[in-house]
Amino acid sequence: VKAVVCDRYGSPDVLRVEDVEKPELENDRVLVRVRAAAINPADWYGFAGPLVLRPMTGLRKPKQRLLGVDLAGTVEAVGKDVTELKPGDDVFGGRSGALAEYVCTAMVVPKPANLSFEEAAGVGVAGLTALQGLRDKAHLEAGQRVLINGASGGVGTFAVQIAKAFGAEVTAVCSTGKVDLAGSLGADRVIDYTREDFTRSRERYDVLFDVAGNRTWSECLRVLEPDGTFVMVGAPKGGPLGPLGPLARKRLASWLRGSQKAVFYIAKFNKPDLHILRELLESGKVTPVVDRTFELSEAADAFRYLGEGHASGKIVVRIS
Ligand SMILES: NC(=O)c1ccc[n+]([C@@H]2O[C@H](COP(=O)([O-])OP(=O)(O)OC[C@H]3O[C@@H](n4cnc5c(N)ncnc54)[C@H](OP(=O)(O)O)[C@@H]3O)[C@@H](O)[C@H]2O)c1
Is residue 197 a contact partner of residue 223, using CB atoms and an 8 Å limit? Predict the structure, then answer.
């Protein structure tokens, strides 16, 4: 079956589409024919291999040849222990190696009928990151004020909608061309970062949900309530330490200088949260934003586009 593979570290030029073994069905999993897969910055680190991550990703070359996590597709066969899905069911969720025609996974739930495969493929990592960060790290409550820095990309577009679904008052920060998008997702206020510096605003926020990670801790502190929570979601990917350098600097500064709480987390794939996202999607409270769709043969182009760092929502690769 066809899959995107990487055998050495480098730019998206190292990516190839090759024939690989079809995965074998396991008892507690389902075999999914993948229709669409979405890409994430974390997939980028799999082939770019920042030095600090190489003990995990492989010292000389990537340990994991196959790329991708997020997917949507159709169940072709179910393991003998699986009770909640059957062949023919359309599903979404994730599995490492999702940029392939088939995956064997336990981490999928029924696809909302109101979503296309391309839309559903974009939900996994970004939707879970937004949900878990706002619910479990920020403990966001109705009526609280949240600022989302980096509101127009994969995570940000889910974060704006989920924060609104929680009843929060949402300020979205994005570039000029994305102001209308952020407003259409429900943001109460949109700050165009090319015209206004949110850290110089008089507003104060209960939660600063920092997806872009491009501002210092002391800048962010200026707009955080004294008992506010700063959620570190992402950071610029440059430098030998990848995103870990800026994240570690901010974490250290928060320990040394602030009374406000700063938290970092890595989102975790789990089925209960995929079901919560499914309900939000079915109710129309959350709608995935798909920026561009590429064919499998264009996977390297999809990553080049992701690398520009200015997607409007999710970048999706159509598999079949
Ligand atoms: N902690 C976790 O578990 C977790 C999970 C997923 C992702 N992440 C991290 O979160 C970050 C974003 O991921 P993503 O999937 O949302 O990426 P993405 O889809 O590429 O979106 C990046 C966004 O950053 C925005 N941006 C760029 N420069 C900005 C600036 N100066 N000010 C404000 N926004 C700016 C862009 O908006 P404009 O085009 O408007 O500039 C774009 O929408 C990455 O660092 C990623 O590694 C963390």
Answer: no
Ligand 1 contacts (CB < 6 A) are 40-42, 125-126, 129, 149-150, 152-156, 173-175, 178, 193, 211-212, 214, 233-235, 243, 265-267, 306, 309-311
Q: What's the pLDDT score for residue 239?
A: 61
pTM exceeding the 0.85 threshold for the entire prediction: yes
Distance separating alpha carbons of residues 290 and 310, to the nearest angstrom? 13
How far apart are the CA of 38 and the centre of ligand 1, in A? 15
What pLDDT, on the 0 to 100 scale, is given for residue 246?
72
Q: Determine the distance separating the centroid of ligand 1 and the alpha carbon of 102, expressed in angstroms.
A: 28
Closest by CA position to 210, among listed 273, 151, 277:
151
- Per-residue pLDDT, 49: 83
- If we measure between CA atoms, which residue out of 168, 256, 176, 160 comes closest to residue 211? 160
pLDDT digits (tens, 9 = 90+) for 251-288: 777 766 666 788 999 999 999 999 999 999 999 999 99
